[in-house]
């Protein structure tokens, strides 16, 4: 059993390093294509865009969300905003009604049916060639839309462009940990963009050609991750998705471990179930890197993390068992043991060096992500929070998501 | 959409990953070798210490015991034992580690013989435990006994514990096993004041025995002093 366990462990570690090196090589190949553009960007043409804001009990944030859209650096007559109240039970409807006097804003109210139903209601009324969505807890940067639209102008084969999402209002350790994670995500998504392997077109301000929905149909429930499913569907149909690293959208992140757990449970459950739904495209050459790299790498990361957790739990229980035996045998003896440091006892096993590489690369990718998002080379304490907080909490939502997937239990939205 | 997968890139990434693992393995071997060299250096130092102590003992044998200090005992024997144990667990039971373990066993026997001679002649307060265990098979009682002995060693600094792995392929260790008639079916085994104890013995059991040993030595010392004054 020990041999099997060790072999599995080595294979998982090898594949994890493989994925990291893949990202590193992709970065080195494309590093000159990554930059943050200035405010002087102009387009040859400014196509009309509809941005849908589905709201469900977002009275506290929706005002700021809509204001951010009204302040976008894009011709006002080319932006149509749909505010869709998905049966909120708080003051959201009153909040969005205040915007009804704006000529480019349309408001809708419907019974609660889930985010995808709100988006589909909006899609029915869209008359522009481009359409996007902005979650009502997120805020668009002034230059985000023009930068996103520049990708469509540059390459007519691009069917959707996703922005860089940055955590805002991070006050506590949980939120700062997520901020570092979002920075890492900016880096990872850009790399996936380079290999055309993006697997999620996030709710906050991904812009699509309307043709995508005309050809492939509207949003689906998709296990409460409609923004992931539409990306899978697009990849399956060879529709190109790009990542615009200098189009920033700021989003509020869960402030407590419990809320974070619920959000991530939904995401991972959605990922697992969408991947099951689209399993026929796994490891198929004709679906590109999305099929041979993105999905396998994401599945691997889940397996590796769960395996490491079980192994750590086993090691911890072994340690505790030995401690119990020690206490039973010699009782509590606080003998003054020498605590002087001797470098001889530093573990120099080969896996130790591999783990140093793995963690170093995680830290470097967070720093690179921050550089891509904020233009700053800086190490933030959020990196330490991320490595510690997520190491403790992530296994719970991963295991629960797998458990729910096996038992077909759907997690709640919030 | 470009669906041409760049297989060359997958291959290059594989080669880089494999190189990274090979580098990690090389570094691990390099540092492992450094540790082995460190162990060898400690053993050489202990060997010189013991030889020096033996010589000192021979030189001073005709003089008063007052001239023999604790410094004759090699202080690094315990440290070496800990490092060897760690190396066996973390570097694996390599040939080099097994060789060093044999050497260590030999040094322990020499230290034991010397310490015993000094103790007998000078009536210094000391107690000796010879401890036989095995690593060849899963011996949970051995692990428990080791814990007891570690606790005892900390509580009684004058106590000298010498540990011998039953499976050590060394004639000197085999001789000790023969002398005390120790069999692998009766491990762990302890030798205290020439008494052979087999199986697990608790902290309290051994503490009583050691205290008795110290008491006896106290009486012997007093009577020796009495005789010398008469």
TrEMBL record, chain A:
GO terms for molecular function: glycosyltransferase activity. Residues 50-216 form the Glycosyltransferase 2-like domain. InterPro entries: Glyco_trans_2-like, Nucleotide-diphossugar_trans. Keywords: Glycosyltransferase, Membrane, Transferase, Transmembrane, Transmembrane helix. The keyword Transmembrane helix applies. The chain crosses the membrane at residues 6-28, 293-314, 350-370, 382-403. Gene3D superfamilies: Spore Coat Polysaccharide Biosynthesis Protein SpsA, Chain A (3.90.550.10). The keyword Transmembrane helix applies. It comes from the Bacteria. Belongs to the glycosyltransferase 2 family. This is Glycosyl transferase family 2. It comes from Candidatus Nomurabacteria bacterium GW2011_GWA2_43_15.
TrEMBL record, chain B:
This is Thioredoxin domain-containing protein. It comes from Candidatus Nomurabacteria bacterium GW2011_GWF2_43_8.
